[in-house]
Q: What sequence folds into this?
């Protein structure tokens, strides 16, 4: 019984910590997911609360997980885990049956599950959650003030971390447009991967009778064809990037032209010009001037209409060209509006939030060296955070093995 209690507590704790962390690292992605839910259920009036709810949800999950891992405030943590599962298990069942949202977003972009897989995952997790809840009063209790201190510290830490990732860019990027990724390679389907399978049928009409025939059993020429239907019966492999298209305002596809260009190319990304944050527009305009003077390329991708683009150009005195890309793709490319990417031959060299647009004076004539130096600094930050996470988990293991003997 003692071993089961420990295993259940740690298993549920790890799931909640991971789920909360991957949402906290990408609060804007979680915001988009909340908006998807609100739109699917006809609750568009709540869209303005999406960011707040995204931070609250990730924080609550993470703190419940931390409490379970450390074995502190177990009664409250057990109730929290049970309430979460009590809400989201029926919700994921509804999503699996009716599919109003294709991806529940339970683990952000770090781990993708189908809706049925998510529901099955929740049923499995529900078992140790219920077991932990039933035994919630039998767990060892530390000093109450000390336990609440741990909760407060971790709460402040995860909220700060989440807002840092919101005001800059996610420290860990789980999306296919991360630094170092090649967009063209991300669009390819590897050899041997399964393809979509369809059931082909056709509707024919004869003597006032309409009938559907399944391929290859079509009727003779006395029947008049009405329509052909293609029904997806088995989903094949879908590449990480499957909807990346760049078009001119006239509708010309220039995707290959941009991705095959050997020149360093800045791409300003704005999925919505109406909600574009122009606090650093002057820096962006200066960067564009720098690119023109030094032989680099600069273009803007947006999903806006031609009229919106023209109004935006007039208001912000921009000189770069505007091109059209799908809004969902733009949201996935970078978690900022606007965000900035640097490409060469389809490879993403770096990316910036609008709060971190490069200062032209800091580039000092060598753009690539500047970017690589900046990337090394970002990688150092990731390593420090990774070390902190590993240290925390090792601390949990230590407490579990050596300080929970009375549990």
A:
């Amino acid at each position: 019984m003692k071993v089961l209690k420990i295993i259940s507590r740690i298993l549920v704790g790890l799931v909640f910590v991971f789920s909360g962390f991957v949402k906290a690292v990408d609060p804007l992605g979680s915001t988009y997911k909340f908006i998807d839910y609100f739109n699917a259920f006809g609750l568009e009036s709540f869209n303005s609360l999406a960011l707040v709810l995204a931070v609250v949800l990730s924080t609550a999950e993470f703190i419940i997980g931390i409490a379970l891992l450390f074995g502190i405030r177990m009664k409250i943590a057990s109730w929290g885990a049970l309430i979460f599962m009590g809400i989201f298990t029926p919700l994921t069942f509804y999503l699996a049956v009716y599919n109003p949202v294709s991806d529940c977003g339970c683990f952000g972009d770090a781990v993708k599950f189908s809706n049925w897989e998510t529901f099955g995952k929740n049923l499995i997790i529900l078992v140790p959650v219920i077991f932990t809840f039933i035994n919630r009063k039998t767990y060892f209790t530390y000093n109450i003030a000390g336990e609440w201190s741990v909760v407060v510290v971790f709460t402040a830490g995860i909220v700060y971390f989440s807002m840092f990732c919101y005001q800059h860019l996610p420290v860990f990027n789980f999306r296919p447009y991360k630094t170092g990724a090649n967009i063209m390679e991300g669009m390819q389907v590897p050899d041997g991967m399964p393809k979509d399978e369809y059931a082909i049928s056709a509707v024919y009409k004869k003597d006032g009778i309409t009938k559907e025939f399944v391929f290859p059993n079509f009727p003779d020429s006395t029947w008049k064809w009405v329509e052909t239907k293609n029904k997806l019966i088995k989903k094949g492999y879908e590449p990480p990037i499957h909807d990346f298209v760049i078009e001119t305002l006239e509708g010309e596809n220039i995707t290959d032209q941009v991705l095959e260009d050997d020149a360093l190319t800045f791409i300003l990304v704005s999925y919505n010009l109406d909600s574009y944050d122009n606090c650093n527009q002057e820096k962006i305009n200066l960067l564009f001037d720098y690119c023109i003077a030094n032989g680099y390329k600069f273009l803007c991708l947006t999903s806006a209409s031609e009229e919106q683009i023209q109004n935006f150009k007039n208001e912000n005195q921009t000189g770069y060209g505007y091109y059209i890309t799908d809004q969902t793709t733009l949201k996935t490319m970078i978690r900022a509006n606007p965000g900035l990417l640097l490409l060469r031959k389809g490879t993403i060299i770096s990316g910036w939030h609008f709060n971190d647009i490069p200062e032209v004076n800091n580039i000092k004539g060598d753009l690539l060296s500047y970017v690589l130096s900046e990337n090394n600094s970002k990688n150092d930050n990731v390593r420090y955070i990774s070390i902190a996470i590993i240290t925390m988990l090792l601390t949990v293991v230590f407490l579990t093995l050596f300080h929970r003997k009375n549990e």
About this structure: Residues 2-167 form one domain. The longest helix spans residues 367-402. The chain has three domains: 2-167, 197-234, 255-369.
